[in-house]
Amino acid sequence: MHDMVKGSNVALTALSENAGSVILSLSWVSPTGEGDADVSVLLLGANGKVRSDSDFYFYNNPVAADGSVQLLGKTPTESGDEDRIGFDLTAVPSDIDRIVVAASRYRGAGFGELEDLKVTLADGSGESLLRFAIDDAGTVSAIIFGELYRRGGEWKLRAVGQGYDAGLAGLATDFGVDIDDDAGAEEALNGAVSNEQADTAVQVSAVEREPQVPPGLVPSPRPTCDEVGPKKAARPRTAKKKVTMPKVARKSLAENESWKQARLFPVSVLKSDRDREMRATSVLLSVMAQVPEFGRRLTAAFGAPAGRMETFTEVSLPHGDTPRRPDGVIRVERAGKLWTALVETKTNGNGLKPDQVQAYMDIAARRGYEAVITLSNDVALDGSPLVDVKIDGRRKHTVALWHLSWAEVTHQAQMLIRHEGVRDKAHAWLLQELLYYLRHDNSGCHGFQNMGSAWVPVRNGIDDETLCQGDSRALDVVESWERLVRQICLSLGGELGQKTLPVQRAKRGTDPKARRSLLADQLCRDGRLQAELRIEGAPGILAICADLRTAKLRTSIEIPAPEQGYPLTWAKRLIRRLAEAPADLHIETLVDGEAGGPRGTLERLRPEPADMLPKGNDTRITGFRLSLFKGMGSGRGNAESGFIRSVDDAVQRFYTGVVVHLDRPTPRRASAMEHAVTE
H-type helices in 163-267, by residue range? Predict the structure, then answer.
């Protein structure tokens, strides 16, 4: 390993052939165990300033859209913490001349209170290349550890070790970052105020950039140009931040793929449904009790107060001659009062048993408990309860019956560790282990995975045209379809970190049973199942149509025509935006007063965008409809060839391949005809 001294520099290509992608790590040791610092990165042009405030990366702006910078977060080491930053030097914009890597302390603390400050650099293969130690930090609250810079077409690293008495505020201002001109902001950046004050005192302008699609991840929608410039980013803070898990898995140290990583919640020993139910209940309830943000998120909707939570499993409660053993109990204490819920769990495709749930409702009523929570792979629907129970009106104490699907549990865990964060690294790790467990094939916690016994008869009845309106089996299929759509919303929303909800058109009424009856009659008439998803930040409604007659799935979105410009310009711009979209994407031009305008595949329209325009000069273009078609699975289950898997794959492919590349339109008031009620 190459050892550097302050002021020295070295060419990265002289140290490794894999220097196009590097990981730079900053580390320190706190003698008291309480000291810490926050890392920041600034991209500078030839004038030594940031191009805009979006070139300032910190924990509220951790990833560059082009992948050139990614703050990977802290990793515990034997002696302290190591904060890692990934750089893809091949993706750094050509007008960037230098990359400054700094760290800052908060609440008036100085780096002199920390020991063993050092910088290490590893190449793309994980091999450590160099090391630089800082032994004269003094009382400064911010330090530039080092900088990457271009010389003669190659990247070099300079060991800097320069301190800033003015703290992060002074450092950022020197490099052209626009800090709000108020005392509170400067104090917050210099670490002189508390977490809450820092959250509200500092604001850094951020220019949002066009996101790229990371492998295996669903990206967020692209911002519009209207959002660039005046929009303010999330307020940075130099106090203790929330922890989220890195979206890019670190390089494994395993010798080969046959080595299996040790897991906190093993799944290999699960052999029976009873084993799976007991393990899943214990795993979930223990994580809920240990991670307050997670436990609160799952129970708040059930009326639980915010307080100290404890959870229990296999509790024996008297019930007539035979004691009952609910799978779990949740108790929350607040101001000396207890809130209690009994938990009944099912995994795999096992359904809830009405007699069990009824017994727990009776027990809870007698003992003054507040709720019974059922937990299974099924998804509850309004107006169609999974279990019918009788409420004894003579009892003064009322018990609420709630249902939670494993898909919802997975969604909430994903939102916390991928997007919102928790305040403790151990809590983030616990949620990551829980998420791994829930997603494992052997856990039995896979969410909705069966279209029901009516699926095959209805599909066959549509195929041979013997299915009649009013057939109760069609209603069963419609309910299963609605459960599947709700689960897709949870899955997609968890990946995006955006609110994703099914849309119900007002013209279909607000009564769930009446609406499902209409959809069942429609299924009998034309053999189609249809749904719409509203994705926060998407340019339109994502529509799904499953045609059981043709065994085809269609995913589509309608985007309005721009309010200004020329039609040919619109067409060319749309084709450019869809440069990475699938070649078989269908594009249809929507026009006034006609059934439809010109249409064609993206592959055919790429060389001739003008073919998207209607022939008549007086025909007004109102928008464009983009569609992908896919073969539909026939099985009722969740196997590779099943219907459920095919719908999920179609939505994922359409969003990642098409929607993410589109411009978000300028917000406008929806007309009464466009009004939709989301659930």
Answer: 167-174, 183-189, 195-201
- Per the CB < 8 A criterion, the answer to whether 339 and 308 are in contact is no
pLDDT of 26 > 70? The answer is: yes
**Average per-residue pLDDT for the chain:** 82
Q: How far apart are CA 606 and CA 576, in angstroms?
A: 8
Distances from the Cα of 462 to the Cαs of 457, 631, 642, 643, 647, in angstroms? 9, 17, 18, 16, 19
Most confident of 32-41, 189-198, 560-569, 669-678: 560-569
When pLDDT is averaged across residues 509-533 and rounded to a whole number, the result is: 89
pLDDT average, residue stretch 403-416: 92
Does residue 64 sit in helix, strand or coil?
A: coil
By the 8 A CB rule, do 62 and 38 touch? Answer: no
* 0.70 surpassed by pTM: no
Rounded CA gap, 173 and 27, in Å? Answer: 25
- How many whole angstroms separate alpha carbon 594 and alpha carbon 10? 67
Residue identified by tokens 């209409």 is 518
pLDDT of residue 193: 38
Name the residue with tokens 């005809």: 673
* SS3 of residue 121 by DSSP: strand
The secondary structure of residue 417, as a DSSP letter, is I
Is residue 671 within 8 Å of 508, Cβ to Cβ? no
- The Cα 422–Cα 37 span in angstroms is 18
* pLDDT value of position 207: 31
Partner residues linked to 588 by β-bridges: 599, 625
Tens-digit pLDDT profile for residues 599-624 = 999 999 999 999 999 887 778 899 99
| Nearest C-alpha neighbor of 37 from the set 131, 147, 112 | 112
| Best CA proximity match to 453, nearest among 300, 668, 584, 635 | 635
Contacts 24+ apart (CB under 8 A), 418-421: 418/244, 418/245, 418/247, 418/494, 418/495, 418/497, 419/244, 419/497, 420/242, 420/244, 420/497, 421/241, 421/242, 421/243, 421/244
Q: What is the pLDDT of residues 137-147, one digit of tens each?
A: 888 889 999 99
For residue 341, give the nearest of 351, 352, 327 by alpha carbon. 327
Structural contact between residues 606 and 571, judged by C-beta atoms closer than 8 angstroms: no
Q: Identify which of 641, 644, 590, 646 has the alpha carbon closest to the alpha carbon of residue 613.
A: 590
Give the per-residue pLDDT at 665. Answer: 52
At a CB cut-off of 8 Å and minimum separation 6, what does 359 contact? 319, 324
Please give the full DSSP string across 510-557, using - where no structure is assigned.
S-HHHHHHHHHHHHHHH-EEEEEEEETT-SSPEEEEEETTTTEEEEEE
Longest dimension (CA), the chain: 86
* Cα torsion angle, 654, 655, 657, 658, sign: positive
